Amino acid sequence: MISNNIKNASRIISTYSADVFGVCSALYELGGMVIMHDASGCNSTYTTHDEPRWYDIESNIFISALTEAEAIFGDDDKLINEICDAAEDLEPKFIAIAGTPVPTMIGTDLKAIASVIEQRTGIPSFGFHTTGMNSYIHGASLAFETLVSRFCGAGTKKQPELSVNIIGATPLDFSVNGSMQSIKKWLSYEGFKITSCFSMGDYSSLENISNSGSANVSLVISESGLAAAQRLESMFGIPYVAGVPIGKAFSEVLSKALKSAACRNTSDTEIFADRNPDENSRVIIGESVFSASLAQEMLIEYGINSRVISPLGNCCLQKCDAELLGESDIENAVKNASEVIADPLYKPIVNPSSKFTALPHEGFSGRIYRKDIPDMINNNLFLERKLK
Question: What's the mean pLDDT in 44-50?
Fold first, then answer.
């Protein structure tokens, strides 16, 4: 992510995966065709660092190969014609076009282009005005919400069982380490029937997602799923609960909240008990829903108060937490922390006197530490070894 504020620029730490890659990740397994409107070769950044499914699951992710001449003079007809020709051969279920910095600077109207393509092909098409200046959370959020708007039809009959949508699943937050399988296994054990998963692994087909309006409740497992859950609530009256079932104690709290929300038909946004950390407390840096869930498990199971610093939104954050984007702000916020739990690439800005516990995040460090990402779902292994 390239910040649009020089104060938030990074000189030491990495940046989070960009919004255009969030779109690709959210739509990867759904049978569509996704085009990044950018220069040739720029798709290698996505496929190499941010997409662990690339060599195992086929997906129609393309680059438009935007040239300097096209950027200067404009040639939308060429882009439209090439997409329509490819769609005729591939017969995708939908077409998505995601923007990058250059189309943003020259004012390319991707939504208008998508409208023309849909008229010509008859295939549902949508343009995302991603810019490369925001994180993957923004792009994935746009994609998930669009799936609800375009494919979840009215008049869907509610299922009689206790059924759930999982929203916010991408390998940028939940790498291919078994975490998503563990979440689904945990839900089944707790008595839930899974209707859909937005959109990774089992229950993530476009058909599953189209049937999301029949569920009784939605589980938001990352900030990227919040907008889609709210749209499902407004369209179908489906309540939602945000949280990740980390550890045994918080998993139990989350299960009770989901069942209560489904029975009362009311979203539960207050399942996180107040924490009372001081400036010397442990600090967790990362995506807001996951980090807040980890902090809650630490509080319930071990009596450990901690603060959360999220560079990726404020869902589930409390008064003691902070949404900070700038490297200097984050460095200042953790300078007195007794311990910092974060992706290893944050270590250079952490005070050497603070204990550092590495918790890799694929959306931040890519494939570098992928093998070291633990499966913490309904599992105390990482907590017991690292935090006690």
Answer: 85
| 3-class state of residue 163 by DSSP | strand
Type and span of the H or E element at 8 = none
Q: Are strands 240-242 and 217-220 parallel, antiparallel or unpaired?
A: parallel
Q: What amino acid occupies position 63?
A: I
pLDDT interval class at 5 (50, 70, 90): low
Cβ-based neighbour number of residue 162 at 10 Å: 17
pTM of the full structure: 0.94
Which whole number is the average pLDDT over 239-245?
Answer: 97
What domains appear along the chain, each with residue ranges and CATH number? 6-150 (3.40.50.1980), 157-264 (3.40.50.1980), 282-386 (3.40.50.1980)
Confirm if 54 and 28 have CB atoms less than 8 A apart.
no
Q: What is the DSSP letter of 346?
A: G
Digit-coded pLDDT (tens) for 370-383: 999 999 999 876 66
Amino acid at 379: N
- Record the tokens describing residue 52, joined without a space: 């662990």
β-partners of residue 285 are 309
Q: Which value, in Å, is the radius of gyration of the alpha carbons in the chain? A: 21
Would you state the structure tokens that stand for residue 242, as one six-digit string? 């945000």
Q: What is the pLDDT of residues 298-322, one digit of tens each?
A: 999 999 999 999 999 999 999 999 9
Of 65-69, 301-305, 352-356, the one with minimum mean pLDDT is 65-69
Taking phi first (over 0 means left), then psi (-120 to 50 degrees means alpha), and beta for anything else, what does residue 119 get?
alpha
Structure tokens at 48: 């190499």
For the record, the structure tokens of 57 come out as: 């699951």
Instruction: Round to the nearest angstrom and report the end-to-end CA distance of the chain.
Output: 34
> What is the model's pLDDT at position 158?
82
pLDDT of residue 46: 86
What are the start-end ranges of the H helices in the chain? 19-27, 43-45, 68-73, 76-90, 101-105, 110-121, 136-151, 179-189, 206-210, 226-236, 248-264, 288-302, 327-333, 362-365, 381-386
Q: Select from 277, 310, 311 the least CA-distant residue to 293.
A: 310
CA dist., res. 242 & res. 173, Å (int)? 14
**Identity of residue 324:** L
Q: Residues 81-115, buried b or exposed e (16+ Cβ, 10 A)? A: eebbeebeeeebebbbbbbbebbbeeebebeebbe
